[in-house]
Amino acid sequence: MNDEARLRTWNTYQAAWGPVGEDERRRLLEQSVAANCVYTDPGSRIEGRDALMVRIGQTQLKFPGAYFRNDSFVEHHEQGLFRWTMYDGIGRVFVKGESFGRFGEDGRLVQATGFFEVPAARV
């Protein structure tokens, strides 16, 4: 798997965090994340794709319409470092951060770790 394929996988994963329906979110995660993936960020540790579905849904409830864009990506040895910006539902910069991802043999993420300051809920 090359860096373009890993970036596509990461972009698919990030799209699942956006304002999409539950069926589409599940489809995106099935394409990009292993069933037994581990997700961590400053406020949570999630194990498994189903638990990640719940976590993403909670994020969309708290920050309706939020979505990500990648700012940069570097990778080596089935690992990637992604710098990103999260936007609120009307396109304003919401939070910036970095994430580390580790890819399994099938190319899907087996680990995703986010580093960022936890944003306050917006009114």
Automatic annotation (TrEMBL):
Pfam families: SnoaL_2. It comes from the Bacteria. Residues 29-111 form the SnoaL-like domain. Transmembrane segments: none annotated. This is Nuclear transport factor 2 family protein. It comes from Bradyrhizobium cajani.
